[in-house]
Amino acid sequence: MLAGYSEDEKQSLRELAILFLHHKIFEGANGFVVTQAMTLIIALQASIPILKLGLEGYQGWVSVIVYPAGFAPKRVIVDEFGVQHSVQSNLSGEAWQRGPVVLAWNDTEHAGIIDGHNLVIHEFAHKLDMQTGDANGFPPLHTGMSSSAWFEAFSKGFKDFEHRCSRGKHIGINCYAAASPAEYFAVLSEVFFERPDIILQHYPKVYQQLRQYYRQDPLTRLSKRNLHARNI
């Protein structure tokens, strides 16, 4: 995944990963032992979205909880009539507002493979989204970015993607992105860093907004990565 990054970018990622490891606490769930190698893999990938943003994007929480595999927490929810229901969902990761990031190791270990899916980036994109409160697909924008341009690009993109998925038209983006605007932002963040060409092809305005927000242009790395792969 890092094949297209410059040496300066790789050095910045190393420094960010070291800071991340210094400020965050890793915990294994259900007796799972989290090794130093595991923490390095997670910290490095968590640093990719904040390469140009800094560790400030992950302020306000400290824990990364790692399960050996998928987990199914039991939750109590209250419906619109005030009735409580006990629900249990199978998950591979989640991010809590002002709380931990939770990851399943079996879905994290090989997250650096270029397939458009990256659990670590997904959950940490939620954390960036939550800087203004609940995750809603509208993270705090930088000075000079247009809120109306972001809203237009993402709302139109989300509606179009919902329509495509409902009709079974797959374009290389996980249809989980159609679950909500927050998931649309998180899933497209995964794709942005792994397969930016897919977003540019189908949602060029969304790509431009993500490029401005993350202050990165992964398309410039794509050709370098492909060249590296051919030379191996």
List the topology elements.
Layout lengths: L6 H17 L1 E4 L7 H12 L15 E5 L6 E5 L5 E5 L4 E3 L5 E4 L14 H11 L17 H20 L14 H14 L1 H7 L1 H11 L4 H13 L1
Parallel strand pairs: 1-2, 2-6
Antiparallel strand pairs: 3-4, 5-6
Helix pairs in contact: 1-2, 3-5, 5-6, 6-7
Structural commentary:
With about 230 residues, the chain is of the alpha/beta class. The protein has a single domain, classed as 3-Layer(aba) Sandwich (Collagenase (Catalytic Domain)). The chain is built from eight helices and six strands. It has helices at about 5-25, 35-45, 120-130, 145-165, 180-195, 195-200, 205-215, 220-230, and strands at about 25-30, 65, 75-80, 85-90, 95, 100-105. The strands form two sheets. The chain has a four-stranded mixed β-sheet. β5 and β6 form a beta hairpin. α1 crosses α2 and α3 packs across α5 (about 180-195). The mean pLDDT is about 90.
Structural descriptors:
single chain, 232 residues, alpha/beta, Collagenase (Catalytic Domain), two-stranded antiparallel sheet, 6 strands, globular
